[in-house]
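=== Discrete structure encoding ===
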Amino acid sequence: MAPTTSRHWVLARKPAGRPIITGPGATFELITQPIPALEEEEVLLKVLFLSNDPAQRMWINPNIHPERLYTAPVEIGETMRSYSSIAEVVESKSNTLPVGALVCATTGWCEYVVMPAETAMRVEPVDDLSPTHFSGIFGIAGVTAYYGLVDIVKAGPEDIVVISGAAGAVGSVAVQIAKNILGCRKVIGIAGTDAKCQWVESLGADVCLNYKSKTFTKDLNRATDGFVEVFFDNTGGEILDLMLTRMKREGRVAACGAIADYNSQTPIGIKNWYDVIGMRLHVKGFVVTDAGSARWATIVGALVQSYREGKIRVAEDGQTIVPTAFEDIPKTWMRLFDGQSTGKLLTKLV
């Protein structure tokens, strides 16, 4: 029998600082809603895995005007949104998505959701890989890394590339693309622990630097001696500010994320802006949805082909899957901001 209700985590209040997960003033609220009847060309999905992405924090930021946000914000009372969730079709009125099909879709933090079949992308098996990789290396993380390096800064064999957040979902794929697909002459990763740095180097980085090390600035200066052509920035904050001083003239910066400031009420800001002027730097912010559906599909195809050619590694250590009771979804999401995961962070509903 098909379910008639679904639990949802909805936004209760927009946090100016770090989200509050439990107790008075909690950011999210757990509610139960009825499941509407299906219309023609709609499907009922059961959510299996939720995608956790730093950008979600910006969708609930009260200090960003909706016109300055690249997507519609999550408003109070709405289900918290999640891109690239993996779900199963449990009821269908569409010929394109039968019952039992796995899809990648924007579902929100819920158990079940009804949506138009055309808005869900069917997950086609790739060898014996877990479908969760279509939320990571073959999904939003991999497409973001590829689009940023290839389309935005046009990295190539002549470039030295520095990648911050190199042990994260996007950064770990960017390392592999830069080194093994684009053939960049040197790839430097930045991560938050020695263990993460070792993992990043195992992916192909020539060196990875621990930004929490007391010698980080000295190590970065040494690694970027002669300066670098490309910086793929996932963090913003102090690392971005420092990297502006390590760029060659006409250097290119792909501004992908700013997780260092997402929970801060007093962002650090940029002190080395003169380097942008003096070195004629090209700083380009980008959002992966700008790629469009056709380009997205092309990039996914290129990533799958690169995997089959042995140029990128798709393995379980490239994703952190956390079995989670529905009541604890917000707690697992907060691992994004505490450095508790390697690669793509996914919530497995149990």
